[in-house]
Amino acid sequence: MNFQDKLLDLSYKNNPAMHSFISKLPATPVSIFSRMSQLAQSHDAVNLSQGFPDFAVDPQLIDLVTTYMQDGFNQYAPMPGVLALRERIAHKYQVLIRIDVNPETEITITAGGTQALFTAIGTLIHPGDEVIIFEPAYDSYKPSVEAFGGKVVPVQLFAPDFEIDWESVREKITSRTKLIIINNPNNPTGRILTRKDIIALEKLVGTYGLYVISDEVYEHITFDGRKHESILFSPVLRERGYVVTSFGKVLHATGWKIGYVVASMHLTEEFRKIHQFNVFSVNTPMQWAIADYLSDVDYYASLSTGFQEKRDYLSTALQQTQFKVLPCEGTYFMLLDYTEISAQAELDFAIYLTEKAKVAMIPISSFYSETVNQNLLRICFAKEKSTLDRAMDYLLQI
Ligand SMILES: Cc1ncc(COP(=O)(O)O)c(C=O)c1O
Fold first, then answer.
1. Which atom of ligand 1 sits closest to the CA of residue 257?
2. Which atom of ligand 1 is nearest the CA belonging to 187?
3. How far apart are CA 304 and CA 296, in angstroms?
4. What is the pLDDT of residues 40-85, one digit of tens each?
5. Is this structure's pTM higher than 0.85?
6. Pocket of ligand 1, candidates 52, 109, 121, 138: which has the most ligand atoms within 8 Å of its Cβ, to mutate?
7. CB of 217 closer than 6 angstroms to any ligand 1 atom
8. CB 215 within 8 A of CB 118
């Protein structure tokens, strides 16, 4: 035994106090998005699986970030975020939906929507708490809840409408239920909750003293004149809720990982207690640049117009195929029913399409915790027309 082995022998191997490693998320595989993107890359397929735009960020915004960097805005931002940006956000709520949000005490800038969700869940959830989520569900909710010792109680929704039966939600509430997470507009279904849904949610939250996290990252991408119903409209939900959003979606810059959370003063104080030891603060020059860039609130309306054009372009083109397009009211995803094309299960068909037809999409079954097969794939249309055309060339050959 050499000297190093001897040291190891003394310090680790024979130490009865050594703990074996226990995974906090033993059943969490690599996400389906990474898997399909990898498969798309290795088969040179058009990647319409992961939700990111493939068009350029506005050069004016890039110039603003560069200018702030060159002007020395490179040190820590304040923990809750640059005040100018928080004021810009408050102004947006005031002008667009006539809601007053205090930029100092009710808005916190985060490192994207995912971190905001994780921190909000961590702020609320203690071991043993139950959390109701609606499936198909965005993939971060369940592992985030479980990382803090919570238990997810899924409510499954099904095509074609994915409507919520609020009575069946009420039946899932127990003395341990702490939180309901909603996502509106919804990824992957592309559906939007109505005022009736928000009222039903408000009733449950008020009656049972629950909390709510409302994932509103697609709030500005709604179609055909439909309005997004923020929980901020409801005084009850506003008092007991976190609203999570993402500039990645608003600025076509998903890699910038910047977003924010809106919550009442008390919930914000508690959120910041965790946030300051997790992220502390978010990158400075981008916050200043975004505050400048979003000075004109008309910008937000242009998002719906631009993405609706892309939705219509792709769904019209898909009419030449045997895919059936489900209604899409918002987000930059649509669901395609492939019943007329194949009897394969969703994951198998998604792999087949990527490998053989050279177009990658996401099986909807991957958004459920139990196996559900509805012959549905999610396709992302936040792409250049040339990318959509290339995908269509392939899909027309199936
Ligand atoms: C529903 C939903 N919530 C949250 C996020 C995460 O946002 P971010 O990229 O800012 O972390 C996404 C991103 O795709 C999403 O689709």
1. 10
2. 1
3. 15
4. 999 999 999 989 999 999 999 999 999 999 999 999 999 999 999 9
5. yes
6. 138
7. yes
8. no
